[in-house]
Amino acid sequence: MSYRDLMMKPQYPKFRFSNIFNQVLIGINDPEYYKQIIIQHDKFSKWNSISYEGLISKGIVLQEGEKWHKQRKLLSNSFTYENLIERLQMMNQVVDDYIYQINSDNIIEILSNITGDIVSKSFFCNTDTKLLKRIPQIIQQLGQMKFKNPLFLLKNALFGMKAWNIYPSKQEVEIDTYIKLIKQQLNKLIIERLEENKTNHKQESKDFLDIHLQQFMMQDNNDPNKIEIDEIIQQFITLYFAGTDTTAFSSANILYLLGQNQEQQEEVYQEIVQVFKEASINRNHLSQLVKLQAFISESLRLRPPNSTLILRYAKQDVQIKDLKIKKGQYVLIDNFVTRTSDQYIDRPLEFDYKRWLNRQNPYKTDTNYENLSFSAGARNCIGQHMARMEMIIILSKILRRYKIELSAQPRWEIKLIYQFNPINVIKFIPRKID
Hints:
Layout: H1 3-8, E1 15-20, E2 23-28, H2 31-39, E3 44-46, H3 53-56, H4 65-76, H5 81-85, H6 88-98, H7 107-124, H8 135-148, H9 150-159, H10 170-200, H11 208-218, H12 229-260, H13 262-275, H14 283-288, H15 290-302, E4 309-314, E5 318-320, E6 323-325, E7 330-334, H16 336-340, H17 384-401, E8 402-406, E9 411-414, E10 418-421, E11 426-430
Parallel strand pairs: 2-7
Antiparallel strand pairs: 1-2, 3-4, 4-7, 5-6, 8-11, 9-10
Helix pairs in contact: 6-7, 6-17, 7-12, 8-9, 8-10, 10-11, 10-12, 12-15, 12-17, 13-15
């Protein structure tokens, strides 16, 4: 019996025990259980899947304790709806710069250029260089090395982050070199901006870098949680990867589902042409494109870009109902069942965006943790509203210009990102534009 068959049985296990080498691994499928792990996030550590300590370990995704609280507080205001609305013009312009170049052979390249430039402009107020655009590719390579390179997997299991210094392969040396070049370039950009701000006394800047540098200049040097330049570098790399690949692949997955569901695509298209008549998407359009937003929600339910497996490491003993998790054990949160079982949602394997039109949560249970597309709780994705805003702009402008069709049935695979392959099965059929 396959894993999926086991999980789809009427009485599927709420949790199951396995191992990672010599460590206990507890897989949890029931949202009533994994909700408590997400809520009690301070009792668990996140797993660094890329096994490279100096790249994103100090960023907001992996940071812990007071450092994380400080980072979240520092960035949270930048991701409020009103502040994101102020970036709408910039987002529209970036999309316009690229969108008319899109075709079946360059979908991910174009979408990644769009999402990467938006993150870069939000952080630095300017676009990134070719070197910085290699960040998502490098992180993807790092994440895949454990699965494709048995020697690296063994080294990582035995030595952790120190594995990079032990008989490195040609690929490891190449990746390490690129990471150092990227960090050197970011360090140069940050130091230049720091000196500029000291001279010009820039006030109330909205970009992420100035927000960090303002805090950097004001902080007490004796503060044990003070911001370091390397932390700002890793924060940018974290936000760049999280904001580039996930949003780009989400948009690609949605395009695929639009091509697969022609009748629903036409309904969304008709809404777009009725609502969106100007050259740019404005704040009024965002609230009026309800069918498109529902289509995005349904796409994220069935084909989320991020893996639905979330790995945590217990820092102390934790009791959740009848499950005792001991310090040092691994916990794997599996959101697959809640997304694809009729115990939680009607017609779970059927794509139907209309289920999101009548109420915000179409799930039968009401834990607020059934949908983990952007995670949940205090450590949910800080950029989720920005990502959805980008997807609305990207998809609206594509659908106004093109009808989406499929040339073949691809296969779906999980790397660090859940994606279909080959990408070029999506066909862009030009529409007649009035």
